[in-house]
């Protein structure tokens, strides 16, 4: 069906004035992908021979982004905004394109490859000169309107700013997605004039030109208008983000993922989640995150580009580029940063921060600790409020902890340092030297009690009265 598809042109040079942003419009993100990234993703379903993206506003940033997400596309530079028709002229200039060309905007993130295929099917089956994807929009304000003749055929497209009251009443709008006979488009595109309210060359005007030259035009009406929503400002950005969220969540729920509250669960288009995962409210699963079956995530948890293995449980936590082993437990209030690897059945408990550290199978960091730049073996326990002192003010250093180690609460492990298999550290120790396997490392002041100090120095206070009463009781007991 798309065998005939030679070229796709994505128009992405506009200023995006209405976004009021230093970031080029097509680089704004929804569901973890740039607007233009979504469009290119839909286009990739067609396997076109070549994709050209017209860039202009924020050219460097857009080109850099494209090199990252779509290295096979070529770019065409539109130096000054001359309208969608002008952008198309530049995309066609100096090349000899035949077959079918698909043209679409870079700001319609909801479009699916499926709808693009349908447009091409209509176009090819009817042998049309041009085919326009259209939709009935409940609020058509701002869109070009589809003006049909008495026989229902497409006469022309009229932009909102150039529309009279009669045309403004039309609910069928132009999606900005078109299939053309490339040679005929190339012949007609030079005939555009900027005789309109914006003084631009409108690609939409080429429809009437082709029609007047005897070309046949199809208007392919799409069922779900949501697909063609364009993003021109931050309100539409948020709307399309919410719609994409709903679409993504529905897809996962149909695939067997329990999403307790889909309205507060945000999953990027790039995340993978297996069936029988449960997601509690207020949770975001972002980037290239991959969640294995049986995992329970949330409430109020953010995972960005994390790998979560079978049956892991993550509560009220923030994790970035972390690996969380099978049946591991995280949270509440854990902060797992880049390079954290929790083994099978490992634990990062309440108020624990971990960075660039491997916590071996069954090892636990249950409470109030910082673990940075470390390797912890299997079955070890890191006592509450332990700090891995990894930074000397200039360099970061590594801590190595063996298997079945017991780090006493409130230990400072001053890196570089290593604790051998089966070793202990005494609570409250500042460990600056290696502790051999099986040893107990003690590094703290010895306790001494100054008897009677409170009665002498704080007489009359509640503490002193209580202490005196206790002394009397002890005397009576003899
Ligand atoms: C355009 C259509 C409108 C349609 C709507 C669908 C025209 C004249 N109008 O309007 O009929 O209903 O899309 O969303 O085509 N661009 C360039 N160079 C330019 C101008 C624009 O590359 O000189 C790019 C923009 O980056 C954008 C796309 O073309 O991705 C559409 O431009 P935009 O200004 O958003 O057009 P709309 O007003 O939305
Ligand atoms: Ca637009």
UniProtKB/TrEMBL annotation:
Residues that bind Mg(2+): 107, 232
One Gene Ontology MF term: glucosamine-1-phosphate N-acetyltransferase activity
EC number(s) stated in the UniProt entry for this protein: 2.7.7.23, 2.3.1.157
Cofactor note: Binds 1 Mg(2+) ion per subunit.
Catalytic activity: N-acetyl-alpha-D-glucosamine 1-phosphate + UTP + H(+) = UDP-N-acetyl-alpha-D-glucosamine + diphosphate; alpha-D-glucosamine 1-phosphate + acetyl-CoA = N-acetyl-alpha-D-glucosamine 1-phosphate + CoA + H(+)
Alphabetic keyword roster: Acyltransferase, Cell shape, Cell wall biogenesis/degradation, Cytoplasm, Magnesium, Metal-binding, Multifunctional enzyme, Nucleotidyltransferase, Peptidoglycan synthesis, Repeat, Transferase
Residue segments, region Linker: 235-255
Region of interest (Pyrophosphorylase), residue spans: 1-234
Binding-site residues for UDP-N-acetyl-alpha-D-glucosamine, renumbered to this chain: 11-14, 25, 78, 83-84, 144, 159, 174, 232, 337, 355, 370, 381
UniProt subcellular location: Cytoplasm
Region N-acetyltransferase, annotated ranges: 256-478
Annotated binding of acetyl-CoA, by residue: 384, 390-391, 409, 427, 444
Keyword Cell wall biogenesis/degradation among UniProt keywords: yes
Ranges for domain MobA-like NTP transferase: 8-145
Record-linked PANTHER family: BIFUNCTIONAL PROTEIN GLMU, NUCLEOTIDYL TRANSFERASE
Family: In the C-terminal section; belongs to the transferase hexapeptide repeat family.
Protein name: Bifunctional protein GlmU
